[in-house]
Amino acid sequence: MPFKRGHNRNASQSSLSSLLGPDGLLVPILQAEVTEVTMRSDRLPAKTYAVYTIAVRSRDARGVDEGEKRVYRRYSEFHMLNEVISYQFPDLAKLTFPSKKTFGNTQKEVLEKRKVMLHNYLQVGFFLGR
User: Fold this and answer.
1) Do 119 and 33 contact (CB within 8 A), yes or no?
2) Which of 9, 40, 85, 92 could form a Cys-Cys staple with 13, CB 3.0–4.6 A?
3) DSSP 18
4) Local structure of 59: helix, strand or coil
């Protein structure tokens, strides 16, 4: 989703000039969307866990689409990322992150809610990182 510039500057004044499309809208260089959650299990011992699919699209500095890649991550990897971000950037520790759940964390409702929350977490993180 493109963002409008907050004020008028010419291209030589803006450090974001290479990120602006021809219509003056900010072109995101990196976009991520949590698209699905699936259940997987280890072979031995049989342990079931959720894997989240993240579709990542990138653009070069001219705004040319470089395609989409799919990344697969478990909740624990998102949690570790959140811990690192919170430690290195204390102001970002306030971002909403889905809590750990000891029981019922493989129930469909829990997984879908987490998927939405993880997606929102990535969107806010990307927006703040600009």
Assistant:
1) yes
2) 9
3) G
4) strand
With a cut of 50, list the residues of the chain below it in pLDDT: 1-18
**Among 75, 76, 56, CA closest to 67:** 56
Give whole-number Cα distances, 42 to 20, 48, 92, 115, in Å: 46, 7, 34, 21
Four-CA torsion 54, 60, 125, 114, nearest 10 degrees: -10
CATH topology (fold) of 28-128: PX Domain (3.30.1520)
Tokens linked to 62: 């001219």
| Residue ranges per structural domain of the chain | 28-128
List CB contacts of 11: < 8 A, sequence separation 6 or more. Answer: 17, 20
* pLDDT tens digit sequence for 48-58: 889 999 999 88
